[in-house]
From TrEMBL:
UniProt entry tagged with the keyword Hydrolase: no
Keywords assigned: Cell membrane, Membrane, Transmembrane, Transmembrane helix
Protein name: Amino acid transporter
GO MF term list: transmembrane transporter activity
Superkingdom as given in the UniProt entry: Bacteria
Pfam families per the UniProt record, alphabetical: AA_permease_2
Naturally occurring in which organism (per UniProt): Streptosporangium becharense
Region (Disordered): 1-20, 479-507
Record's bilayer topology term: Multi-pass membrane protein
TM regions (residue ranges): 29-54, 60-80, 101-128, 140-161, 168-188, 208-226, 247-271, 291-313, 347-367, 373-400, 412-431, 437-461
């Protein structure tokens, strides 16, 4: 570790509140990721879209996407083993590619997790309002549903990571069980059709390959959020093992649930008619009506659970990245305030909640809840592609420069390149051909945001280099020696790692 980095080591914080170290176990962080993926809300929304592109082959496309996403999951696991931190991808990319790239990653990240509550709660309220009215004859405005859910999310995340993590675990288990039971019920109700192998056949390409590529891209993006446990590393017991396991387990578990539900969707709707499901109103609730008159209520409960779980996971992750950057001084230091009793990043959580209230009501009023979901979905899609791609490439830099003895050409070379290529294909098909109004406005805002991030990172490197370097440090209590850490000067201080000199991490 260079003298320059040591001189900027954070002061001892034994007398001030800190995140609650070791509060979360393996089960809780696994369901942080599972709930972020949203086993119910994801497939209910995206499943019909996929079927519109590839028809009966939707389950196969989901399975292929799961395998592709596991490549990026392997990259995150490689990073998390060496760099457990609430900074998440900022820390990962800073140690692999330098702090300027790390800052651009964090800048792009703010298009993603902090806005996830808006994404899932807008679409959930937009779906539930007409479903409740059709089945119960009661009109509940979408904005009221969204605000109530945002209040629940804020209360749970503000009062403690343990409380919100346990709630996330319960919600994740409930929605996963409901979706599996729902899929089995649809298959039983479909009778002999459930034995069809058509959903596992490659889609028809007579109209060209673009629909297949588009379906694959949407299916890959369906898995965004599998890494959401990473920013909880400082509050997780044994994060070097728990986080990598979580990344891979959550992807496989949810991917298999989605493949099963997609299979049930295809055979329940009809293999020959499935291509038209994308234009139907709330098709999953139509399938529920075919199972039983009360099944819509069970599906609505799963959707509500899923939206709450995903919003809780996104808010927890997004607020902790704000906290990490506030702690270093890159963002206002007020964001690093920890609630003395709850031990949560209180200011960051308040800011995240206010942001989501404003964006949710603003977009919902302008475009309606479903239109607002599509608009903010483009923000998240583009932001997460940039974040994941930079993280994948950071694996190469981290292991080649700092862990040469452990460098594996396949895992730390070929896998990151292949994973990034898949994501860049997703980027291409997300923006070309150029979307129509108002999505072209969203595209322009995202492009401008990223350009500003590059400019700001260059300015910060010239004016606040020490803060950028401090933000890339790991701050945790971990006795395992990986060759990266050395004790801080004060015994009371946390152990730190990670100098970056001249924009590149040095050992």
């Amino acid at each position: 570790m260079s003298d320059d980095m040591t001189s900027h080591a954070p002061p001892p914080q034994s007398s001030s509140p800190a995140l609650r170290s070791g509060a979360l176990g393996q089960q809780e962080v696994v369901f942080q990721a599972i709930s972020h993926l949203g086993p119910a809300v994801g497939i209910i929304i995206i499943g019909p879209v996929l079927a519109g592109f590839v028809g009966a082959s939707t389950p196969l496309i989901v399975l292929l996407a799961m395998v592709a996403v596991l490549l990026t999951g392997l990259c995150v696991a490689s990073l998390a083993r060496k760099l457990p931190s609430s900074g998440g991808y900022y820390t990962y990319v800073s140690h692999g590619l330098g702090e300027r790239a790390g800052f651009v990653t964090a800048w792009a990240y703010f298009l993603y997790d902090p806005l996830l509550p808006t994404l899932v709660l807008l679409v959930t309220s937009g779906i539930l309002t007409p479903v409740i009215e059709a089945n119960l004859g009661v009109h509940i405005p979408w904005w009221l549903i969204a605000l109530v859910l945002l209040a629940v999310v804020f209360t749970a995340t503000y009062r403690g990571v343990k409380i919100s993590a346990r709630l996330t675990l319960v919600l994740g288990v409930v929605e996963s069980v409901i979706m599996v039971v729902f899929a089995v019920a649809v298959l039983i109700r479909s009778g002999g059709r459930s034995l069809s192998l058509a959903p596992l056949e490659f889609p028809d390409t007579s109209a060209g390959l673009q629909p297949v590529f588009l379906a694959f891209v949407f299916a890959v993006l369906l898995f965004t959020g599998f890494e959401s446990a990473a920013p909880l590393a400082e509050e997780t017991a044994d994060p070097r093992r728990a986080i990598p396991r979580t990344v891979l387990w959550s992807t496989i578990v949810v991917g298999l649930i989605w493949a099963l539900v997609a299979y049930a969707m295809v055979v329940g709707w009809g293999v020959e008619k499935i291509g038209g499901i994308a234009s139907a109103d709330n098709p999953f609730f139509t399938l529920a009506d075919g199972v039983a008159g009360w099944a819509w209520l069970l599906l609505a409960f799963a959707l509500l659970n899923s939206a709450l779980g995903a919003a809780l996971a996104g808010q927890n992750a997004g607020a902790r990245v704000m906290y990490a950057l506030g702690r270093s001084g890159i963002l206002p230091r007020a964001l690093a305030r920890i609630h003395p009793a709850h031990r949560t990043p209180s200011t960051a959580l308040v800011l995240t909640t206010l942001l989501n209230v404003a964006v949710c009501l603003g977009l919902g009023t302008w475009l309606g809840p479903i239109g607002g979901f599509t608009f903010i979905g483009l923000f998240i899609t583009l932001g997460v592609i940039v974040v994941y791609s930079l993280g994948n490439i950071a694996v190469i830099g981290l292991y080649w420069r700092r862990h040469r003895a452990e460098f594996n050409p396949l895992r730390h070379g070929v896998v990151p390149v292949a994973a990034t290529a898949i994501l860049l294909a997703g980027l291409y098909y997300s923006v070309w051909p150029l979307p129509e109004w108002p999505l072209n406005l969203a595209l322009g805002i995202v492009a401008s945001w990223l350009v500003i991030g590059v400019i700001v990172s260059a300015l910060l490197w010239r004016t606040r280099r020490a803060e950028l370097m401090d933000a890339a440090r790991l701050t945790f209590e971990d006795a395992e020696d990986t060759g990266d850490e050395e004790p801080a000067r004060s015994p009371a201080a946390a152990r730190v790692t990670g100098p970056v000199a001249g924009g590149e991490v040095t050992g």
